Amino acid sequence: MPQLIAMVEGVEVKHVYLHKDRTTLGRRPENDIVLDTLVVSGTHCTFDLVGVADVFLEDKGSTNGTYVNDHMVKSRTRLHDGDVIAIGPFRIKYLQASEQPSSFGETSAMTLESHAAAQPVNARFQVMTGSSAGLEVPVVKAVTTFGKPGVTVVSVSHRRTGYFVAHLAGSNVPTLNGRPIGDEPVQLADQDVLDLAGTQMKFLLRE
């Protein structure tokens, strides 16, 4: 199944499997993929799934443009395995086919359909380092993964009692407020600082 892996400063912020005929991306909450930053237009672009694994990208007249491998998209463009899409500070890698993880189910796949619009966002991470400092990434799924594949990856789970972070993969041990995170979930509190291999993100909780 085709998938998109979105990163900011090398940190994975969204992982989306393309299973609909058309998937929309933009700043407005009604989009299938919501990137909440002003450099992204309300409806920025679309991904059309044709057949089993062919995906076509189309910019929808966005203000700041959509780029594939550093070339601006001017017409409907077929994506190829490994293509990198640039939208503002986001770098989105396109993978044409992969097996959807079965151990974590639909939640881990983070398809991001109408879930973001159906539930008010009250938790997010704010990037503190690099050129994207200040960018806020909403936590809208029951389980969300962040990190650098092959280096360090954490999972953030939303439970009835709050938000919890755990080290999921990678040899580099992430820290929370300077303390190492293990594979046992640790509850997050407002203003906690998560460090993923040098990239710092502040957790913001708004009740």
Automatic annotation (TrEMBL):
<dbReference type="InterPro" id="IPR050923">
    <property type="entry name" value="Cell_Proc_Reg/RNA_Proc"/>
</dbReference>
<protein>
    <submittedName>
        <fullName>FHA domain-containing protein</fullName>
    </submittedName>
</protein>
<dbReference type="Pfam" id="PF00498">
    <property type="entry name" value="FHA"/>
</dbReference>
<dbReference type="InterPro" id="IPR008984">
    <property type="entry name" value="SMAD_FHA_dom_sf"/>
</dbReference>
<dbReference type="InterPro" id="IPR000253">
    <property type="entry name" value="FHA_dom"/>
</dbReference>
<feature type="domain" description="FHA">
    <location>
        <begin position="23"/>
        <end position="73"/>
    </location>
</feature>
